[in-house]
Amino acid sequence: MRNAVATVVTLVLFLTALPLRAASHEQTAPDPQAIAALETRANQADPRDRCFLYAQLVYQITELSVRKFAAGQVDAAAGLLRQVQSTAQKIHLSAAPRDKKLKNAEILLNQSSFRLNELLRSNGYADRELVEQTIADVNHAQNEAMLDLFQK
Q: pTM for this structure?
């Protein structure tokens, strides 16, 4: 009986905590200062850590870009998408089987690609070609990370 009560209480706490965590994640938008700090950290990081840090950077810039598009700031969002493309290129150049957190980097890139695809489907922006090219670059970096993951 005690085990059943403890299980129910644990389950209730777990189920109520998940929406709160998800809501807090959605409300905290990445800010440009945090992105700039992460970019500096990624550029100066040990080569084994760069892939994951660049993937974090891609994810945060993607989130900020999606929010800028939603707010109607198309020019700022397009500039951020170009920054995503250049960071994805850095992932492609820096990824190696010896990298730390390679699977986590691949997951972040997958989430970024998903968000960009949502953006592409939900809006008919004039920058459609830029979004499509960004998706292709992020997918390429994700595939590279996945291949390097399996070469370990």
A: 0.76
